[in-house]
Amino acid sequence: MCSDNRDHLYFPKGWAARYVDQNYLPRDPIIGRLQKDRNSFSWSESYKSCSEPDNVRVIGGEAADFGLVEGFVIPITTLDHRTAALSFGGARDDLSNSDRSALAFLANFAIGHWLHLRRPRSTRNRMLSPREFDCLLWAGEGKTDWEISVILGISRSTVTKHISSAREKLGAVNKTHAVAIAMRMKILGYSHRIDAELPHGPPV
Fold first, then answer.
1. What's the rounded Cα separation, in Å, for the pair 169 and 126?
2. Among 24, 87, 85, 84, which residue's Cα sits nearest to residue 56?
3. pLDDT tens digits for 107-120?
4. Tell me, what DSSP letter sits at residue 85?
5. Helix, coil or strand: residue 125
6. How far apart are CA 145 and CA 116, in angstroms?
7. Considering the entire predicted model, what is its pTM?
8. Under the phi-then-psi rule, with left for phi > 0, alpha for psi from -120 to 50, and beta for the rest, what region is 144?
9. Is there a contact between 108 and 180 (Cβ–Cβ < 8 Å)?
10. Minimal CA–CA distance to 174: which of 86, 83, 90, 52?
């Protein structure tokens, strides 16, 4: 995992020692891909896109000796532009697209929760305003900031401002984490989703 320009490595014991002793970090094709790609990717994709085949052969080959043959990387960018990532590896990667989507959501929550616990308690769990709630609700439905602005009849920059404010109040590190916290705290839930889907006519 990478966060705040620092790297936290959790590998099988023998491979961790080898990785550090040989200073593989700056040569690692996965780390190289992570610096340029903010979308989830597989280890094999990072190997194919690496411009240094020797690094793929050496690092990929030695990792395989420790049972790390294939894996999946989930980069996470926080609203304050920090980067973190979770990398899952093993003998094979047989995840479906739906599995990867679920894993990406859980990874956002896991890293977000870890960073959330490091925040001062005074910054957490303040009450959301109605507009912050609306924006977070539609974000939870998968809408982009632009789509939310059209639905609510406000500017995109205002949506971004409300979501950022909601994130600060909930102590979340990004939009996905804010939605996850709101769901866990039951600020958002199934009843709100139903309400969001119902047509709203003019008042009578």
1. 5
2. 24
3. 777 777 676 666 55
4. E
5. coil
6. 23
7. 0.52
8. beta
9. yes
10. 83
